[in-house]
Amino acid sequence: MLKKRRFSSACPPKTQFVASRWFFAVILFIFLTELARTVALPSHFQRDIHMSKLYSRRLASPLLLTLLLVLQAPASHADAASTAAPASVTGASEEEALAARIDSEIAPLFKANEPGATVIVTQAGLTVFRKAYGMADVAKGRPMTPDTVMRIASISKQFTATGILMLADEGKLALDEDIRKFLPDYPSGGKRITIEHLLTHTSGIANFTNKPTFEAGMNTDQTVSQMIDSFKNDALQFEPGTRYSYSNSGYFLLGAIIEKVSGLSYAKFVEQRIFVPLGMRDSAYEGHERGSAMRARGYTRSSAGSAFEPGKAVSMTLPYAAGALVSTVDDLARWDAAVSAGTLLKPSSQQKAFTAHVLADGKSVPYGYGWSVRKMRGMPMQSHGGGIPGFSTYALRLPEKQLYVAVLTNADRGLPGAEMIAVKAATIAVGNGFPE
Questions:
Q1: Within 13 Å, how many C-alpha atoms sit on residue 228's CB side?
Q2: pTM above the 0.70 mark?
Q3: 51-55, 65-69, 419-423, range with greatest mean pLDDT
Q4: How confident is the model over 319-344, as pLDDT tens digits?
């Protein structure tokens, strides 16, 4: 808050006049200095998704706005002009208070010398909270930073689903088409399995990560064809379209379809069609990174529960299009901004992605295309969580409040749940805005 500043009237009028001239000379010098600093913004700010916010705050700094108000006011009204804090200062104070409330809830959950998390909260496209906790690498003593790269696990499914919808919008495939049009060697047991069945986890194809043999071989590199061969002959769990059962196998097949239709590898497709256009410079299919940002090491709580140890090794050729992407909370915020702006998809396609899928019997399931579709205290929410050796993640969006929260942690167990943290942060950010 700007403190009310009063000028003494005890000196004679002539002295007041001379003092006023010197005062305004000093004020003008400070004003011009501040203005020069404001205009000379570093070039990297101009590329940042939140550039406009940073720029407006720089212009609306308490000092600069106070100087503007004083310079515009007659000397006789200088005292009155100094009593009112600009609206932007009040807004900044409210935002700082909000960030402090979120931090006060999250900070006690992590220890400085253990694995940690990165958290971002954006509202109406502006970042209201962004912070890191704990260690990115415990052994090397590297603290987590907000721009640390981590595996995002099944949040990857949003990008795979969007890739499929982009190809559909371009007329290169249709969601109601049989997957054998693109994967002719896939045995379906005489059943018609569509692309939409894969998107909504209603295909009946068993989840390959649940197979008893999965963990033993999960650090062995596999080709896309080899992985499909490992589960394609498993019996369907149910008639396609009649039930919902979460299946990484379905999203693995979607990645193969993207490759077949686009002529690009899955890694190149998400890079060229999504990451590069959106400025997501620290996002990639793991092993195909374009930048050199710090990567977090993944951990798990030891079986004894007394300490953290490195997470189990896994070849990222196995999760593939179902969960092999890496990113940062900053890039995920860029992603949500593009989703909210309708940058990548036709409005009708985006709406379907956020709509609960309806089964053959008319019942709906809590999933659209790549997003879980639920409600948070009566408010529509699209979200997704993820778990992969060494990491646990969660991201949610509340479209009615233009709110987005992403939480990435570098431990698959032993830390507070990423979903719990995201919900807590969202609840604080929304405040009393939830319906009863």
A1: 18
A2: yes
A3: 419-423
A4: 999 999 999 999 999 999 999 999 99
